[in-house]
Amino acid sequence: MKNKNGEIGKAKSRLTALEKVTGSAKYAAEYNVPDLLYGYIVNSSVTKGKITALDETAVRGIPGVVDVLSHNNRPSLPWFDVMYSDMDAPPGSPFKPFYDNEIKYDRQPIALVVADSFETARYAAAQLKVTYETEDFDVDLRKNLDDARDPSKGLATLIKPLPPSPKGDFAKAYGEAAATYDGDFRHGTEHHNPMEMHATTTVYEGEGKLTIYDKTQGTNNSQIYVSNVFGLSYSDVRVLAPYVGGSFGSGLRPQYQLFVCVMAALHLKRNVRVSLDRKQMYTFGHRPQTVMKARFGADAAGKVTAMHHKAVAETSRFEDYNEVVVNWGNILYPAQNTLLEYQLVPLDTYTPIDMRAPGGSTGMHAVETAMDALAYDLKIDPLEFRLRNYAERDVSEDKPFSSKELRECYRQGAEKFGWAERKPEPRSMKRGNRLVGYGMSSGIWDVIALPARAEAIFTKAGKFIVKSAVNDSGQGSYTVMTQIAAEQFGISTEEMTFEYGDSEHPLSPIQGGSYTTGVVGSAVKAACKVLKEELFKKAKRLKNSPFADSEEDAIYFRDGKIYAADDDTVFVNLTDIFQNEKEDKISVTKSNVPNPLKLKQYTRAAHSAAFVEVEVDEQLGTVNVTRAVTAVAAGNIINPKTARSQILGGMVWGISKALREETLTDFKTGRYVNPNLAEYHLPVHADIHDLDVIFVEEKDEIINELGAKGVGEIGLVSMAPAIANAIFHATGRRMTEFPIHFEDLVL
Amino acid sequence: MNNFNYLRADDTEHAVALIGKETNSRFLAGGTNLIDRWKYNLTHPDTLIDLANIEELHQITETENGGLRLGAMAGNADTAYHPLVKKRYPLLKNTILAGASAQIRNAATNGGNLMQRTRCYYYYDHESPCNKRNPGSGCPATEGHNRLHAVIGHSENCIATHPSDMCIALAALDAVVQVTGAEGNRSIPFTEFHRLPGNNPSKDNTLRPGELITSIDLPAEGFAENYSYLKLRDRNSYAFALVSVATGLRLKDSKIEKANIAVGGIAHKPWRVQEAEDFLKNKRPDRDNFAQAAEIIMDGAEGFEHNAFKIPLTKRAIIRNGMMALNPQETQRPGAGPSR
Ligand SMILES: Cc1cc2nc3c(=O)[nH]c(=O)nc-3n(C[C@H](O)[C@H](O)[C@H](O)COP(=O)(O)OP(=O)(O)OC[C@H]3O[C@@H](n4cnc5c(N)ncnc54)[C@H](O)[C@@H]3O)c2cc1C
Hints:
The structure holds two protein chains of two kinds. By secondary structure, chain A is α+β, with helices and mostly antiparallel strands. Chain A contains 18 helices and 31 strands. The longest helix of chain A is centred in the C-terminal third of the chain and has 26 residues, at 516-541. The longest helix of chain B has 16 residues, at 310-325. Classes of the chains: A alpha+beta, B alpha+beta. The complex binds flavin-adenine dinucleotide (FAD). The site of flavin-adenine dinucleotide has 31 residues of chain B, from β2, α2, α6, α7 and β8.
């Protein structure tokens, strides 16, 4: 009876589903506080240069306009870069909105018009007359590859490590290989396009005190940023983000609407809201343009011996954004001669920012294409080829895996998909006018460990409450945290209250990197454990306590009681504890502090295998992903339903990455030309067919308290390369540019 | 978005009178294009004249010559699902349903569909030069991103395309646009309604200032036996055509008696070439003949950096669509993608 409830592992719907589908869930731009002012941001219309004049006359003459803020009249601000740094800032000098008259990138924010209605602010903003002096700029990665250089090191490169040093002798091994592949790859810019656009509502509480509703992936991150930039004490800045309508990385750093909104609120001593429109959602971080080269060699027995993977990516001129693009191949496939390189080209754009599966979804395209090509060349089944190169140990770092059930992913995925039906020759499978192709790919994503804190509370009224500053941008963290906490006390999720998305709660890292479940979940579990110890201690001290002499292993918690492990009739009601208490609640706060020495000994990663069927109408150049199976090994799956949704979302994104989305840049004007959802093509229902997800059993006692690896990104990593490989099987053509379009197939 | 006056017209005469009187005024139909462009700062009307109350414009009625009159204010969805359209003009139904989204088709009207403007990125960016929006300012598309753009009938001043699906069927069906204005009523053959950019790309069509579209009239022949619409686009729904083809065939003794072929996504107007249709007359409806017709249709085509692929793609689409038209029951599906 001990695990009557067993909330961990239960397929639960999101606890916030009703609020979300009925519209009662409030997002950052929906807090209608009294006397609210509305700010609309004016963006630069040139890509580089200087503002020589701002004519505000027309704007200020419009009834309802309260103020115009720009570099000309902004309040004084700190000068040091460090004050603008946030928890996710890459090495460099963070962008400072309205700092001076310099234009660093196209559509940079340059002024804020504040008015008594959104419509007035937007209309007035269009009347601002700006004069510029323009300068030459470069936004084309491929034309500036000569400027490629190594990225600067910093905090970011600790979490997202630079490539390992070369190993063995690549040139020799490649020269001697029985089969080789040499390919050049190109990925364009992409933007996150969350449903909810970035917005901030700042409530001016009086002398230096602010309550801020922000669209962010880290309430503490926004809090620290605002406090530092505006010289406020942390305790005076409260940031709330209980609902976030998707972010995919765009909320990892405080975005400029937060800055200008807080600036206006402090300056005017009023409540202010600033929300971005869809076009403005293309004026900050993005997935960087990247070009890659992959040269792989294998011996006649089908072992990969040589591996060269080089990536050159775009960054801004002010920060060195980096991501892990080239490290994955050698973790997956144990080649002994490797050359892994990663460089940056600074361009006149905003700094890129992590976008779902940053680096991995880019790099794995080259790795898995090269692997696939070698398999065809050697006439070995692509799945068999990967099995022959299965890494029992991570040779790139010479470490064991903390756990790795990729082999089981291959086996179960292939079986469910029907991989055995595949005919080996390209162009050999047909359906009517269409060529049919089967393709597969491995996937890998690392498991990050970070500290986090949580508070666990039991009240006199018998309520359990757990608190963390973490937020939930839609993936189900709130539900999962509630499950983890409920499990500890043997109660249902409905009986557990999880309070989150508030910077006043115990510190949480920014939510991202697929680590939230493992990191914050472990803190939640740790806090609950300490609360249990505390409650048990108090239960023992009760008059006539049946547990006076019991040890912890002789009892368990269930339904608000402590039971004797061997006798259901012996128990203590937890609320009885308050007979001896002065307070009306018992509260403990606990950190989950990972042990770096232990963790460092292992390579910690989630794995996946994707199997994809495509139909290609070669005459017309249309591609449809008709079915796909992704098998995932990600440790303990806390909630199979929300986890499945994450993998499905990743698979849909894989379809998008391979076949649909791209931000088009006009290199002559420096401008993104399709900043809207009509022309930035995300997949629609008609693009999505039969998708299936398998979770493979995997135990991991190293990574964290929960043995949970996280599932936010792993579903995306393997999907796009599998599609490219399936198109090869269908057509005999290698797809090295994403997204793949008509022109890649009909020309 | 500026403040504006909002007026309602009681009947067509009233509408024409109001538009003549109010400066910088526009007719408002479904608003799905006009309001969109307004919010993008591309247009700033001072007065809107809503046509919603003009009852006769909403009607779909049979005409004396056996055709069908589609009121200018009849909705795109209502038109597609009208029993007579489904039965006699399934080509029109399919083109309408291949466009936009269910929500937009519900709001959009037939008159508005004809009048919708190009989706050229540079036209849509009010800060960019554009000869269509701001005559004489230049055309960045010729040297910029031109994947969506025209490969035929373009001029050095403008390489924009007309984005409509519905209009491709209307062109293929030999529809006639009925208009009324201060100077009375006119009938404009559909293929003469839209125009090529030439030296004056700001003008999309031959409607005179202040004229109101009252209906679009379909002739009796609807090609309900042998028709097909094929739309090629960047995703399977909710994207404008890169290339689309509407084909109607009249067959007799396994030969083509009449072939009407209109192509979308490649020019400033629905593209129809009489010589190609004449060529097909009395020929067998097979790949070779459609291929030769495709060559004639695309004669003189000239692509740009990102859209040259449209030329071979259009030819293949014309061939495939011709073959699909032989067997519409098997090949025509909602969404108008290529059949298996
Ligand atoms: C995101 C999106 C995707 C779309 N995708 C497609 C697609 O794939 N295929 C496609 O074909 N279309 C597509 N459309 C366009 C859609 O079909 C048009 O917006 C719609 O048909 C316009 O009709 P409306 O009634 O809303 O016109 P309105 O916006 O009301 O009017 C458009 C113009 O026509 C004028 N006008 C309206 N009625 C008359 C009249 N009776 N006489 C004279 N002038 C008149 C107005 O003054 C205005 O200038 C899409 C639109 C959107 C927003």
